[in-house]
Amino acid sequence: xxxxxxxxINALSDAVTVCEYQGIKIIRIIHPMVEAGISLHGGHLLxxxxxxxxxxxxxxxxxxxxxTKAVRGxxxxxxxxxGKAATPSHGFARTSxxxxxxxxxxxNGVIVTLTLEDNQDTREIxxxxxxxxxxxxxxxxxxxxxxSTNTDTQPWSFGxxxxxxxxxxxxxxxxxxxxxxxxxxxxxxxxxxxGSDVLTFSAETDRVYTxxxxxxxxxxxxxxxxxxxxNDGDNAAVIWNPWQELSINMADMANNSFETMVCVESTIHxxxxxxxxxxxxxxxxxxxxxx
Length: 291
Fold this sequence. Notes:
- By secondary structure, the chain is mainly β.
- It has a single domain (3-290), classed as Distorted Sandwich (Beta-galactosidase, Chain A, domain 5), CATH 2.70.98.10.
- It contains 2 helices and 22 strands.
- The strands form 3 sheets. A 9-stranded antiparallel beta sheet has the order 7-8-9-10-22-19-18-13-16, with no helix packed on it.
- A hairpin with a 4-residue loop joins strand 1 and strand 2.
């Protein structure tokens, strides 16, 4: 994504500007503490870079900005289901148009809030009433939360994920801890497996860890940093890297781009969660960089 091609629509404050890129509206944040971008298409954080740091979030160099699909990279919002539990895959939130409802800033950082409510299009896919709020708190750390409220007269069940793509120097020299031992291996048709305390990568990896610790650590050795990922409101953590063969088959990924990304996702997997009318649930992920 060439940020030089962003067209400014409206400067909302010193730090927050509404821009457009290939027909998609993007909230651009430029603040003394942080730079970031959030697409209203999908309620999707595209980049996050604390001042003095390398990019923390990975965005594909071949990302396609198309209103019919999710952007490859960033933090897609999977909701109201994860994976292929129904159609479309990963739900409709990541391809819906969200609304900017609030932005606040001070010397310590920026907070941006987006909302998505049921409409005729969503009810044709999923026949329930809801109110979703995405909150992005940005400074040296990033805190992303998805708060879902049942505004219907009947209970409904849901799943989902904050499908975070992390920017790393080299997947061959990365290790992850804190994900727990028990996982479902999606490369083996969801086979129940047991892993070790440390996860390293040498092939396609697509795992649903069912008993993760609240904080998962990514040791990005070649960037000389550790990324801590603290999740809440989840019941699983998904860790994914497509490796080369799958990357080659994806038009929106460069053939070798699997080397510089890994996904660690705050996930509501099976069993899904149920909300009674008026009930609220928050799924969140907090991301920090340590040296």
